[in-house]
Design a protein that fits this description.
Radius of gyration: 22 Å
Distance between the termini: 51 Å
Oligomer: single chain
Number of helices: 3
Largest sheet: none
Low-confidence stretches: none
Number of strands: 0
Structural class: mainly alpha
Mean pLDDT: 84
Order of helices and strands: HHH
């Protein structure tokens, strides 16, 4: 009875370890693909129009700054986020989550 339990425990450990390794590989490949896609978008935008690229980066920066301000400030009493505030807040949160994902798994792909 003890040998079966030990073999089952070792088998479960190996399955869990292999699953974690596969998940790490998949996440690293996704991070590399996302990083490559972002670099390609930046390259194509810059080659199309450097002025428009800088203007777009400025507008994006202002939008993310507004989203951060809305996310971290104390909400007015009795009012939720509406309209532009909700959109910029969601944009900021998605950008922060993407940046965190790239910082965690991007260096593992070897392309940095």
């Amino acid at each position: 009875m003890g040998v079966r339990k030990a073999v089952k425990g070792v088998g479960d450990f190996l399955v869990e370890t292999v699953g974690e390794v596969v998940a790490e590989i998949v996440l690293s490949v996704l991070a590399c693909a996302l990083l490559g896609l972002l670099a390609l978008i930046a390259y194509l935008a810059w080659s199309f129009s450097p002025r428009a690229t800088l203007a777009g980066a400025g507008v994006l920066s202002l939008t993310l700054a507004h989203g951060a301000w809305v996310t971290f400030r104390d909400p007015a009493k009795g009012r939720g986020r509406r309209g532009l505030a909700a959109v910029t807040s969601v944009g900021f949160v998605l950008t922060a989550a993407t940046a965190a994902f790239l910082l965690l798994y991007g260096p593992g792909c070897g392309c940095l």
